[in-house]
């Protein structure tokens, strides 16, 4: 199988690195300092499960250099999905599958605005990893897992072939019974943690131990559940409880990627997290005052980061 990994950050670097250890033909599409570093020294992954170095079959900064891929792992940021999909479209075949792994609830919607439905999967991953330096990925915590499926939850030979590839790479993976629900479950967790973390600039240990902040996170999750239900996604109160339980299980020093980006003055996924909840709430007539407050308070910092 010909596999393309677009975006070699914490997610693309780890899972792309695992796939590059298989017998399949793997291409990394990467920019900046990572490009030359990987070409010269390979991709170096530090992991809680053991370190490794891989040299993919091809490393490029141009989607146009791709051979027609059978599988594309899309590991860019949420706001880059539509643009990358447009660039990628001419190089896809009938059988090609694009699997988005970034955070956010509407990545599939963005893909389907550009790509034919036959080429689009939905998915998510669970991992805590980041770029430690050029060509260097640090998998710091959390058991890595990929969950995926067609948006309509059908199963076919192409999907089973994807599973076989992940199995060969020794990546914990599963075909979801309801991928849309799974995406929203993760989205609820990451948006709940990210917004309050970015506002306070404090790690999760501080957020969950402060009664007021903890209640704000709970309200954030409850509002997301109401929006999801209005969109036909079967999130329930138990899912909200699981979000809070997951927050309680995190290492006390944990911070979310959106929080880290904002603290470093970088563009973040604010629009795709609390901003998306606010806009969908307005569209659907669902009051979401906490998500709106978080979004509005963080927006000036986001706009400043994007102008620079």
Automatic annotation (TrEMBL):
<keyword id="KW-0521">NADP</keyword>
<comment type="function">
    <text>Catalyzes the NADPH-dependent reduction of ketopantoate into pantoic acid.</text>
</comment>
<comment type="pathway">
    <text>Cofactor biosynthesis; (R)-pantothenate biosynthesis; (R)-pantoate from 3-methyl-2-oxobutanoate: step 2/2.</text>
</comment>
<dbReference type="GO" id="GO:0008677">
    <property type="term" value="F:2-dehydropantoate 2-reductase activity"/>
</dbReference>
<dbReference type="InterPro" id="IPR013328">
    <property type="entry name" value="6PGD_dom2"/>
</dbReference>
<dbReference type="GO" id="GO:0015940">
    <property type="term" value="P:pantothenate biosynthetic process"/>
</dbReference>
<dbReference type="GO" id="GO:0005737">
    <property type="term" value="C:cytoplasm"/>
</dbReference>
<comment type="similarity">
    <text>Belongs to the ketopantoate reductase family.</text>
</comment>
<dbReference type="InterPro" id="IPR051402">
    <property type="entry name" value="KPR-Related"/>
</dbReference>
<dbReference type="InterPro" id="IPR013332">
    <property type="entry name" value="KPR_N"/>
</dbReference>
<keyword id="KW-0566">Pantothenate biosynthesis</keyword>
<dbReference type="InterPro" id="IPR003710">
    <property type="entry name" value="ApbA"/>
</dbReference>
<feature type="domain" description="Ketopantoate reductase N-terminal">
    <location>
        <begin position="3"/>
        <end position="150"/>
    </location>
</feature>
<dbReference type="Pfam" id="PF08546">
    <property type="entry name" value="ApbA_C"/>
</dbReference>
<dbReference type="Pfam" id="PF02558">
    <property type="entry name" value="ApbA"/>
</dbReference>
<dbReference type="InterPro" id="IPR036291">
    <property type="entry name" value="NAD(P)-bd_dom_sf"/>
</dbReference>
<dbReference type="InterPro" id="IPR008927">
    <property type="entry name" value="6-PGluconate_DH-like_C_sf"/>
</dbReference>
<keyword id="KW-0560">Oxidoreductase</keyword>
<dbReference type="InterPro" id="IPR013752">
    <property type="entry name" value="KPA_reductase"/>
</dbReference>
<protein>
    <recommendedName>
        <fullName>2-dehydropantoate 2-reductase</fullName>
        <ecNumber>1.1.1.169</ecNumber>
    </recommendedName>
</protein>
<feature type="domain" description="Ketopantoate reductase C-terminal">
    <location>
        <begin position="178"/>
        <end position="299"/>
    </location>
</feature>
